[in-house]
Amino acid sequence: MGLALSLGRRGQGQCWPNPAVGCVLVRDGRIVGRGWTAPGGRPHAEVVALAQAGAAAKGATAYVTLEPCAHHGETPPCAEALVQAGVARVVSCLTDSDPRVSGKGFDILRAAGVEVETGVLAEEAARDLGGFLSKAAGGPPHVTLKLATSFDGRIATATGHSQWITGGAARRMVHGMRARHDAVMVGAGTARADDPMLTVRNMGAIRQPVRVVVSRRLDIPLMSQLARTAREVPVWLCHGPDADAALVEAWEGVGAEVIPCGLTGRQLDMASVLERLGEVGLTRVFCEGGGALAASLLAGDLVDELIGFTAGLAIGAEGLPGIGALGLERLDEARRFELVETRDIGGDVMHRWHRH
Predict the structure, then answer these.
(1) 72 is in an annotated binding site
(2) Does residue 324 contact residue 294 with C-beta atoms inside 8 Å?
(3) Would you list the domain boundaries of the chain?
(4) Which residues contact 41 (CB under 8 A, 6 or more apart)?
């Protein structure tokens, strides 16, 4: 099952709105087929593994990271494909939360006499597939918040100069992280200050993540790199109900998709933003700041994973903080995350934290 999970991760960022599933077929102690969800979501992992195994699938055990699908979509159900191939046993991590599948895939298998075992490495699979499971149940996608800061937690000098705080190795790793997410998200301030492309570069031919900008008033330059490339790589703009209709029309005119979202006070409601992104199919969102957006996500308890890159330099109190004001009075009001990894990346420190 560990191998199946590692295979499933190869599809992360490439197969939304479908889940990134892995499948391994084992017969007589030998792997006879393996697969993961293909780019674009088709074919599914089970179909890829069955095609590789051929006749050897008869009597095999299938290790699948998520319940095989049970509904007819663009292709027949994977549960039926496993039955037709003569698979004798299916071991799965999790039940699918999609109401079209939930429990039905396992029912098809059991009705055909296939032995079913569930709950194997369920916690690990829940981390990998949590965004899909949440989205399928009407909730938000998985959110990773990444910050590259100086030793004293600054993301830029007082003048806004920020390129580059971390080194080339860290920046290359960030491109790899982008590629494993469905979307890269920034706030309007970052879009104005940095004029970023937000694409994955030097990683070969891949499905580029959607570029999401959170901007209540759509006050982002229409001559920006995002606007100029909106027809080449998707740009989605999450805005408030009071955005200027002329700006909405202008951004639609350059090829961007505009998504109206609700407000909380004078700010965009980030829970509403993420719910809308889940409704349109996103399962994993990689947020790269800035400070105000990071604070909004943390204040709303909407962050599933924190990734920090800390460089060995200090900018000082006049620099721009990595996270904006949270209004905390006591330490016990701050949500604590669990440290799961630290690494030296070209002289910078990468530290990764999970929600408890």
Answers:
(1) no
(2) yes
(3) 1-132, 140-355
(4) 15, 16, 17, 18
* Phi, psi of 83, rounded to the nearest 5 degrees: -65, -50
Which residues, including other chains, have CB under 8 Å from residue 84's CB and lie 6 or more apart? none
Closest to 286 (Cα-Cα) out of 141, 119, 123: 141
How does pLDDT run across 267-305, given as a tens digit for each residue? 899 999 999 999 999 999 999 988 999 999 999 999 999
Are the C-beta atoms of residues 289 and 186 closer than 8 Å to each other?
A: yes
Give tens-digit pLDDT for 34-90: 999 999 998 999 999 999 999 999 999 999 999 999 877 667 899 999 999 999 999
Q: Between the CA atoms of 222, 224, 225 and 231, what dihedral angle is there, to the nearest 10 degrees?
A: 0
Q: Angle at Cα 209 formed by Cα 96 and Cα 166, nearest 5°?
A: 115
Annotated binding residue 224: no
CATH of 1-132, one of 3.40.50.300, 3.40.140.10, 1.10.3470.10, 3.40.50.150: 3.40.140.10
Fold of the 140-355 domain: Dihydrofolate Reductase, subunit A (3.40.430)
Please indicate if the annotation marks 92 as binding a ligand.
no
Is 190 labelled a binding residue? Answer: yes
Catalytic residue numbers read 46
Say if residue 238 carries a ligand binding annotation: no
For residue 265, which phi and psi values (nearest 5 degrees)? 70, -125
